[in-house]
Amino acid sequence: MTPPRTNTTPPPIPPRLRGDLVAYLHRKTGGAGDAEDVVQEAFARFHRAGHDLNGADARPLLFVIARNIQLDRWKADGREASRRSAHDIHDMDAGPRALASETPDAEIGLIRRQDLAAAAAVIRALPPKTRDAFLLHRFEGMTYRQIAARLGVSVSMVEKHIAEALRQLKKSRGD
Questions:
Q1: Which of 7, 26, 55, 113 lies 20 to 30 Å (CA to CA) from residue 65?
Q2: How many helices (H) and strands (E) would you count in the chain?
Q3: How far is CA 121 from the centre of its chain?
Q4: What is the pTM of this model?
Q5: Which of 4-18, 32-46, 75-89 is modeled with the greatest confidence?
Q6: Whole-number pLDDT of residue 84
Q7: Rounded CA gap, 23 and 122, in Å?
Q8: 41-67: per-residue pLDDT in tens?
């Protein structure tokens, strides 16, 4: 007997969240690239991993996933460009055989997922104002002054909140 089929179609992407992610990626890439495709892929990965859009960490996790997808695409584009620009077949360091594989092995993927989960856990564990200040700055691109106005604290306090968040993240990585 086959198990009941589960719905594998991701839920629709909330328009505001989609817009925020696209704007974030445009800021990171200077308007270049395929931000819509990256956002769609980020939501698909988020859904496949079993995360819930209503979770407290959904938004920052989506931003991290989207940023990582964009970084992976940049790296792949760089590898492709270097393969195409290798003119001397005797120079094996720059030639087409320099890379054993274009796809990262399973161990690297596992390490990335573990790092992402650890960072999300650290962010979730931050005090509310520290977490809010960090997320507004890193993922919304807000200035310290804008964050201070939104949170009702001084700019100096925003600096302290963000410094504390970065300290906790660095500490969790063992740096």
A1: 7
A2: 7, 0
A3: 14
A4: 0.45
A5: 32-46
A6: 63
A7: 25
A8: 888 888 888 888 887 788 888 888 888
